[in-house]
Amino acid sequence: MSNVGAIQDSAGRQGTADHSEGMGYLETLPRRVVTTYIPLILILIVLLFPFYWMALTAVKPDHQLIEMDKVSPFWTWEPTFKHIHKLLFESEYPRWLWNTMFIATCATFISLVASVLAAYAIVRLRFKGAVTVGALIFLAYLVPPSILFIPLATVIYKVGLFDTPLALILVYPTILIPFSTWLLMGYFKTIPYELEECALIDGASRTQILIQIILPLAVPGLISAFIFSFTLCWNEFIYALTFLSSTQNKTVPVAIVNEFVDGDIYRWGSLMAGALAGSLPLVILYAFFVEHYVSAMTGAVKE
Fold first, then answer.
1. 65, 132, 171, 188: which sits with the fewest CB atoms below 10 Å from its CB?
2. What is the pTM (predicted TM-score) of this model?
3. Which DSSP symbol is given to 28?
4. What percent of the chain has pLDDT over 90?
């Protein structure tokens, strides 16, 4: 017995030593610099430099945008707000921003409702062929929009919705629902079945279970699906370019390219100001809900 105790004590000390030794590379400053600080700095530079370049271009005078060989391309000593003023007060950018917000919100809401119902039916009802249906739904997401926009344009034109926001509101769910359904399927699988079975024993209906039990527990998954869908709608270009032609009905990604490019003349100041202003809502959205987004994606991938 004494030998067994000595072996267990030795194994415990060895496990502790191995654990501390495994994290020992962070104890010295040189190793922290090499393994942590330098990679983090490089990642920050790669991620933040595009935003810095957009902001810098948006406040540069026109002559510095053209004569880059005579001035530093990475800084300016003569900032101007002319490009931003032109974007906000001499163009229809506020209207484009509203169009983008309205279309993205409506399409995301429709997609979430459909995805919740589909994911709940596939995962919780356990009908025959549910796994196959889930796989087919996800495969539908892999079909590129460049293949679908031609037949969809024909349908939109025949039903009289061409050049209206409703065209995009009805078309965007075709690319949002498959991925959102797959994501919510993975998250719904993490919710214990026992909760639902207890509710069924107590006489609750499927609708009550979904609304009162499943959805409150799946809030991180819903937020993640909302962020993904909203971002995809906000940045979508092909469908918006195809289905909208009037200047006042365009969305931000299409409008800033069409309205601030005259032939081979690119108004870089206004272009970058529009791109920067258009990206700020998404940055704010991710800043508030990034933890829920990561947790839901982790739960979906685990399944």
1. 132
2. 0.80
3. S
4. 23
